[in-house]
Amino acid sequence: MSHFSYQNGVLHAESVALSDIATRFGTPAYVYSKAQLLDNFTGYTAPAKGRDALVCYAMKANSNLAILDLLAREGAGFDIVSGGELLRVIAAGGDPGKVIFSGVGKTVQEIELALEKGILCFNVESIPELDRINEVAGRLGKRAPVSLRVNPNVDAKTHPYIATGLKASKFGVAFSDALATYRSAAALPHLDVVGIDCHIGSQLLDDAPLLEALDKLIELIDTLALEGIHLHHLDVGGGLGIDYGSADGQPVPIGDYVSRVFARVDAWRAAKYDGKPIKVIFEPGRSIVGNAGVLLMSVEFLKPGEEKNFCVVDAAMNDMARPAMYQAWMDVKPVVPRAGDAPVYDLVGPVCESGDWLARDRALAVQPGDVLAMMAAGAYGFTMSSNYNTRGRAAELLVDGDKVHLIRRRETPAELFALEMLVK
Ligand code: LLP
After folding, report:
1. Is 352 a catalytic residue?
2. DSSP SS3 for 236
3. Whether this model's pTM surpasses 0.85
4. How far is the centre of ligand 1, averaged over its atoms, from the C-alpha of 238 (Å)?
5. 270 Cα to the center of ligand 1, angstroms
6. What architecture is the 4-31+290-416 domain classified under in CATH?
């Protein structure tokens, strides 16, 4: 069930009319539903109940402190990709002991910080990175827990910019090099080789490629065990898609996917390890927060043209980059639908780029001043926003039942240049 629905002709987040939020807080604004966020998280944790499993929310999807705090209180761990994200986890009251650190370019300072805070694991992507982590750990008198991100060469069948598991990808260690890389890791004195991970891409509607990647990891764990390298956890990455309301179709329900992962893992452990369990880690981002957020915007002008009609809104590519960057199709709904003519418009923002569009060829019955909601905008929306054109970033709000909480206020123009200095 979606927590965004029309009630008495007005689109609501839970029990709050989005038109009221637009009036009170202005637009553009991101609005999140707490209930939707928690439902999605429970989709992962319910089938995992009583098992050694950890859901490490990939916070790059949405790293607002209030969202992190909610998830941390539900027991979430976090998948981070920078020292800044680790500091956010700590600021939100999250447990660094449940943090895994992904990414191809961890700096010495980031590794030091992560070791000092005692993270759960580094997901390592190359031999030079292993060497660097080993060196830093040795210098600090610590041992670094590491997992290797293996590239299983599985086609995720998604947009090329968000497919990461193919041979040509910058991510991970090639499957054919994995064994040799594990041997190198095991030989380094300041590392504990504890796990294996992969992440083959994002917005996967079908879980077949995810399960295929899992099978490859299982194969590798068996090979490593024969070499005396025994892993304690298996991290299947993130990647499960969401329903954007497009023609692409519906994703596999979270619980079905998670149950299939456990069924495979259990059958394998029963066959090869007398049923001895292994910890399973998930790194979902989009499927936790994507459909839990909308981007509200107001119509500024209607601009009919010879070939195209434009609906100019007050949100732009700096607020939501997905259409401009990936040609992503995002659903747009009027908050208070009107009867009458619905001409076909391109929905565009005020930024000075032809690429500044949010939706194309949409039939909309709208007038200037109307509020529109871009649906399923909770993931990779605010976190990818920028200040291009000296535009302050949108406000963020969290709805909980009939309450609205401001969880990030709108930036003011003066704040945008406050860090700059004139040369005298
Ligand atoms: N783990 C790793 C190592 C990742 O790189 C990512 C996402 C995730 C987990 C979470 O994946 P998810 O469950 O959200 O699919 N900006 C793009 C998506 C980029 C994904 C980057 N990595 C978009 O808006 O579609």
Report:
1. yes
2. coil
3. yes
4. 7
5. 32
6. Beta Barrel (2.40)
